[in-house]
Amino acid sequence: MDLWNLRPVTLPAELETLRRDVRAFLGAELAAGRFTPRCDQWLGGWDASFSRRLGERGWIGMAFPEQYGGRQAGALARFVVTEELLAAGAPVAAHWIADRQTGPGLLRFGTEEQKHTYLPGIARGERFFAVGLSEPDTGSDLASVRTRATRVVDGWRLSGTKVWTSGAHHAQTLVVLARTAAPAADRHAGLGQFIIDLPHPAVQIRPIRLLTGEHHFNEVVLDEVFVPDARVLGEPGDGWHQVTHELAMERSGPERILSTFPLLAVATESLAAAGRLGERCALGSVVARLWALRQMSLAVAGRLEAGGVPAVEAAAVKDLGTRFENTVIDCVRMLTQVEPDPGATGELPRMLAEAVLHSPGFTLRGGTNEILRGVIARQLGVR
Questions:
Q1: What are phi and psi of 25, to 5 degrees?
Q2: Where are the beta strands (DSSP E) in 198-354?
Q3: Rounded to 5 degrees, what are φ and ψ at 192?
Q4: Angle in degrees, CA 247, 169, 83, rounded to 5
Q5: Each residue's pLDDT tens digit, 167-215
Q6: CB under 8 Å to 158, separation ≥6 — which residues?
Q7: Which long-range contacts (CB under 8 A, 24 or more apart) does 3-8 make?
Q8: Has this prediction a pTM greater than 0.85?
């Protein structure tokens, strides 16, 4: 079987120049003490000033057309920039969702007024988004959404609860998936997406804390929130098609592979400094898997650049990638014999602790592995 439509991608020479520019910028940021490298920074590293500095360089919303504040550089250019940011453990959470999925969603499905209202702020690193998809008791089954959107004069009223909503307590804008019609035989029908500017008096945001005590996720309660027609994204009833496009962005990127890369890099340096060459085979096996997964993720970026919607391919990348991220943790613990310590001054025990404490979420967020395998099974015709 052909692995759907994944094809090898070779990055053009100008993107290697871009990569060197990003590395130089990150080196200067580190030298100035503006951030500390950490694991999983695309979720936890909220730093609005860092995002603005990226925006000043044109490294957010890179694929947006110039009239909306972008550079029209394409998905592969964004891949190079995000790969370098993740590998460096840079704090990218503030702009991440807007740059990765809601911005492209607005570009593809939004009205001209919506594009001009939101996209330039995203590209400047000043407009931050959250997405309300998952709900209590539904897991990763988005087709079982119960949040209601009821038609009223000049708009809609939304009521329901969303969970695991990353960054909602910081975001200025929330995009919510809601049911616009009663459930039917086709569970994917009758859904829509709605844009809500925050703060909003009818929206309550409550923290869901990680094992570390950190606050990234939220429960969001919508209590008869009025959304005018001008803030409906796309067509009411077409929400499933729109979200499928969004999930291809969310599930396939290098963040599904590189959350623990800063830990792997530090551990490799530590082993090399100690002259422990016997671990080279074990490390080589991990790096080989990393390289193969990177090629898959890059191939999905190539499909996105060509205008495709590689949702199934993205599901495969996320399933394999998030399991690999846990493999990195196990490998580092075995080879270094270092105990995780969140309060350590040394990079290795601190990063190991960060990775261990964040790891339960790797295979959950963005769709559980079980759900993803169901998506893949349907494509293969075995479900």
A1: -60, -45
A2: 203-209, 215-228, 232-233
A3: -145, 165
A4: 45
A5: 999 999 999 999 999 888 788 899 999 999 999 999 999 999 988 888 9
A6: 147, 148, 149, 150, 176, 178, 194, 196, 222, 224, 225, 227
A7: 3/313, 3/316, 4/310, 4/312, 4/313, 4/316, 4/379, 5/303, 5/308, 5/310, 5/313, 6/296, 6/299, 6/300, 6/303, 6/310, 6/313, 7/299, 7/302, 8/295, 8/299
A8: yes
One-letter amino acid at 59 equals: W
Q: What is the DSSP string of 32-47?
A: TT-----TTHHHH---
Q: What is the pLDDT of residues 10-69, one digit of tens each?
A: 898 999 999 999 999 999 999 999 999 999 999 889 999 999 999 999 999 998 999 999
Residue carrying the six token digits 């898997």: 289
Angstrom distance (rounded) from CA 107 to CA 304: 13
| Distance set, CA 130 to CA 196, 205, 213, 223, 380 (Å) | 10, 12, 20, 18, 33
Which amino acid is present at 122? I
* Burial class of residue 55 (count of CB atoms within 10 Å of its CB; 0-12, 13-18, 19+): buried
Scored b (16 or more CB within 10 A) or e, 190-218 reads bbbbbbbebeeeebebeeeebeeeeebbb
**C-alpha–C-alpha distance, residues 183 and 234, integer Å:** 20
Phi, psi of 177 (to 5 degrees): -90, 125
What beta strand segments (E) does the chain contain?
129-132, 148-152, 155-162, 173-179, 191-197, 203-209, 215-228, 232-233
SS3 98: helix
3-state SS of 71-86 is CCCCHHHHHHHHHHHH
Q: Are 304 and 312 in contact (CB under 8 A)?
A: no
Gap between the Cα atoms of 195 and 366, Å rounded: 20
112-133: burial string, b at 16+ Cβ within 10 Å, e else: eebbebbbbbbbbbbbbbbbbb
**C-alpha to C-alpha distance for 258 and 85, rounded to whole angstroms:** 10
Helix 239-252, helix 280-305: angle, nearest 10: 150
Amino acid occupying residue 13: A
Two tokens at 25?
């910028």
Q: Are strands 173-179 and 129-132 parallel, antiparallel or unpaired?
A: parallel
User: What six digits make up the tokens of 104?
Assistant: 């492209």
Provide the token pair at 35: 């951030």
Alpha carbons 196 and 372: distance in angstroms, whole number: 29
